[in-house]
Amino acid sequence: MGDYRSERVDRHRDEGLYTDQIEKDRKEREEFSEQESEETKILFATFFNQLKTFFGLISPSKKFAGKAIDKQEAVDHLREFKRLLKALGTTNLSNSSEYATDLSDAWCKLIDDFDNIEIIERKTLSEVSQFRETMDTIKNYPLESEHRLGYYLLEHAGKDWLPFPFIEILEALHTEHQSNTKKSTLTKWVSLIDQTIEKLTPNLLFRNAPPS
What gap in Å lies between CA 99 and CA 51, rounded to an integer? Predict the structure, then answer.
C-alpha cells in the first residue's frame, strides 16, 4: 500500500510540475507573440507610409508629363527620320557611310520609341497601330529581298560596314523618287510618318513645331 501511495504522489507532483511548465511556456509565448505582433505592426505601418509617400510623389499630372515626354521624343525622332528620307529623295546618298549611320541611328531610336509607347498605351493599343504600320512598312522593304531595309538599319549599317544590298536599296529608293516623286515609295513613307505624328501629337506641348 505504501508503494501505491508513493507512486500516486510522485505522479501528481510530476503532473504538477509538467502543468506549471506548460503554463509558464504558454505565458512566455504569449508575451513574445504580443511583442512580435507590436513590432510587426510598426514595420507594416512604416512600410505603408513610405509607399503612400512614394505614390503621392507620382501625381497624375507627373505621370501625364512623363507620357507626354515619351511621345514628344518619338515625334522628334520621326521628324528626323522623315528629314533623312527626304534628303535621300533629293540626293543619291546610297554610298555615304555617314548618311547610312544617321539613318540607322534614327531607326534604332524609333524602335525604342515604339516599344515605350506600346507599353504606355497598352490599354489602348489602337493609338499605336499607325506607328506599327509605319515601322512595318519601312522595315519590310523590299518584300522580295532576303535581307530587307529594317535588317540593315538595325545592324547599324554605315558604322563598320556598308553592304552592297543596302547600297542598292537606297539607290533604288532615290531613283524611283526621281522618276515619279508623287507615287514613290519615299513619298508614301513620308506620308505614313506624317500620319503617325498626327496620331501622337494631340495635347503635346510642341505639337505645332515646324516639320523637318
Answer: 49
| Cα distance between the two ends of the chain | 115
156: pLDDT confidence band, cut at 50, 70 and 90? confident
Burial-class residue 97 by CB neighbours within 10 Å (0-12, 13-18, 19+): middle
Mean of the per-residue pLDDT values of the chain: 76
Distance CA 58, CA 62 (A): 6
The set of residues, in sequence order, having a beta carbon less than 8 Å from that of 44 and lying 6+ positions away, is: none
The predicted structure's pLDDT at residue 202:
72
The answer to whether the Cα torsion of 120, 112, 183, 165 is positive or negative is negative
Q: φ, ψ for residue 35 (rounded to 5)? A: -65, -45
CB contact at 8 A, 116 and 72 = no
